[in-house]
Design goal:
Shape of chain A: elongated
Helix content of chain A: 25-40%
Oligomer: homodimer
Order of helices and strands of chain A: HHEHEEEEHEHHHHEHEEHEEHEEHEEH
Number of helices of chain A: 13
């Protein structure tokens, strides 16, 4: 790469102003933002995106899935586009960095390349994907663009059908229109994303940049522990068939199993619903929301088997019934080896320390597995905080990540 | 007691017809009834009560708390009334015996005594107390009549203030009027109740009648286990502060403590509320609904201390915070010794087996502790079922119980 390119840097002051303005949209006053997908606050953030694109002289367009794009046409002869993206939606009362930083950095990379008049072998597109967080469907925009969205996913979405329809109406979108966002894979040069780590590994190791090796697979189940409702005063302890015991014992045992036998994996019991749910009635049923993740498919299968065996063991122990309902199965997605290497080269060139790690969270990048090259970098999260107002990344780390993304785009586009 | 009185029996066919008609009101089609306090179905059951009283030539009145009474004046010179009662309200989708059987039996006892022209030394009053089950407040009618209702209890009732106001309006009652139901203790000769056991003890022992020694005390707490919300994918297992662990460990340990160290007592974790309650977020908080009961005050205190120490131990173990909120404290209530003895004498005379046992459930009788003599008998519950449509008591057991109540009234009223 010519010397002039390797010394190119983004404009930190411009990025700071841009990101600061974005952080005010849907701000909750405690450092966080509340911008669920297609809410009024999210749509206001998309107005910011549109204004940013126009003031930078970038082409702007919105597809049928509501994905917002700012495009820099590098050469009229280019047949492919390199997507640089993330998302402007947040979880309910989330942080201001998750997704938003990646979108602001993507725009800044395009601005830097445009103002330096650099022609790459692909066009560049900064993109804000619709509903990454899953308030409505999850990875809605990226899976639609990648041609991976199943109509079934819109029938019974995790946020409820009514919320989806209301969100689409608010954004002027239609259900049928979402599928028109699909692009031919030949048109995609790749997808790159900068994101906060959402964990403590980089901070603990004192490393500048995480180069994502794989995005974990996720499985989620609803486990129904079935007991019998009885009067909680007049029924002897020995006569009870208490669903809470199986659910509680499973919760403790699942953690032991994963921590003991599945290093690098995680398990979460995020919710229990008790029925009938009264102080004075023995629980007839507890529905437990279970999720677990692994970056490795084989390990994933073994963990699944071990956890289901554990659930069966606990219901036998407490004389309960068990109903197992699978909600979600995402296989792990490996990031493209070549892109990981170019990220590493860029870090070396910038004098930044880097480490390869798996992403425990899902990201839009996984929608492009098998469609085009994918790459992702993490910047450190202070105290690992995520999906909360206290989520924070030091400004120096944000700038470092932006420069790694810029350098990687240049290396890939001139290579 | 004269021979003619000791051979007096209730009319089983008349009781059967009466109770069968009552069971149809609010029937859910599966053997149960749905008659929450002051619901339309409950008010319809009270119309049945009114018609029963009138057709039997008993005086009928309703007090300011909505308690329905059928009165048999035995002698114009009587200054006291013996109350025979129970309640016609049910839990949501409850059984047809709980409360209703006691009211039908009380009416049958009055009919039998009236048709035999027997003069007792007190008047008799069959009474249907308002809201025993606590859909609105709990023991509302009996505590109002006993002069024990605190205005505070109506401010934030367990069923919600709105439900209470709507129920009162439906029944033509007023909040201020409830307190006018209070009677001078000098006017009360006592309170007797027949109820189903709601447990398996009598059935298991093969005994006809349970003579209640005490009604258990109840304490209920909301225990808040406080952790920290984190991303359930990107946060390492060792970095989590997971509220579900404390709540689960407490649930298992509380059962061990009560079964091991507090015989005859019970504990229930009837509900847990997870916040934020998502598959993919480590639980920041679990609010656990805890209730425990003991018939003995000293044992009760020890159990309370042991359970609270257990909660503290679990939060220390998992590095959580703890918030303790006490919801309810009912002390145990002993039944009057003399009344228990007369119940036993009546059983002996009728050739029925009997046993002394504590009531694990609360009942209107406890409102009269310290006000007047109280007595209560149980008839066996098949399989111990309670608060459920499968609740059932054999007809022979219902008739036996009714005759024990009749004989006890005669013995107390002639003695």
């Amino acid at each position: 790469m010519p010397k002039s390119f390797s010394t190119l840097r983004i404009n930190p002051a411009r990025l700071f102003d841009s990101f600061s303005a974005l952080s005010l949209i849907g701000a909750t006053g405690d450092g966080g933002v509340n911008r669920p997908a297609l809410s009024e606050a999210h749509l206001a953030a998309r107005d910011w995106f549109c204004a940013e694109a126009e003031s930078a002289g970038l082409d702007f367009h919105v597809d049928g899935a509501g994905n917002h794009s700012a495009v820099l046409t590098c050469q009229p002869s280019n047949l492919q586009t390199l997507l640089l993206g993330s998302h402007l939606d947040s979880v309910s009362n989330g942080g201001r960095f998750d997704g938003a930083l990646g979108v602001a950095v993507a725009l800044e990379v395009l601005k830097t390349i445009k103002e330096n008049g650099i022609n790459l072998k692909f066009d560049l597109e900064a993109i804000d994907f619709t509903d990454e967080e899953g308030t409505l469907v999850g990875l809605l925009g990226s899976s639609a663009l990648a041609g991976r969205l199943h109509p079934e996913a819109l029938k019974n979405p995790r946020g409820g059908r009514q919320n989806l329809l209301e969100g689409l109406a608010r954004a002027g979108l239609s259900e049928a229109g979402i599928f028109t966002a699909a692009r031919p894979k030949e048109s995609l040069a790749g997808y790159l994303e900068l994101h906060i780590e959402q964990g403590k590994r980089l901070e603990r190791m004192g490393i500048d940049i995480g180069i994502v090796s794989a995005i974990v697979g996720i499985r989620s189940y609803r486990l129904g522990f079935i007991g019998r409702a009885d009067h909680a005063g007049s029924t002897l302890m020995t006569d009870r068939v208490d669903a809470s015991l199986g659910a509680s014992a499973f919760t403790l045992a699942a953690r032991e199993i994963v921590m003991g036998d599945f290093p690098g994996c995680v398990v979460n019991v995020g919710r229990m619903d008790f029925a009938p749910g009264a102080f004075n009635i023995v629980p007839a049923r507890v529905d437990l929301s279970l999720e677990f993740r692994s970056p490795d498919e084989e390990q994933f299968e073994k963990m699944d088997t071990a956890l289901m065996a554990c659930a069966k063991e606990q219901v036998t122990r407490f004389d309960l019934g068990l109903e197992i309902e699978c909600f979600e199965k995402h296989a792990p997605n490996a990031m493209t080896a070549k892109v990981q290497q170019v990220f590493a080269d860029s870090c070396e060139d910038l004098g930044l320390t880097h480490v390869s790690l798996a992403s425990g969270a899902i990201h839009d990048g996984q929608s492009f597995d098998g469609v085009c090259p994918i790459g992702m970098i993490f910047v450190p999260s202070v105290d690992g905080a995520s999906h909360a107002p206290r989520e924070f990344t030091k400004w120096e780390d944000c700038v470092n990540g932006a420069n790694v993304l810029l350098q990687t785009v240049l290396r890939l586009g001139r290579g």
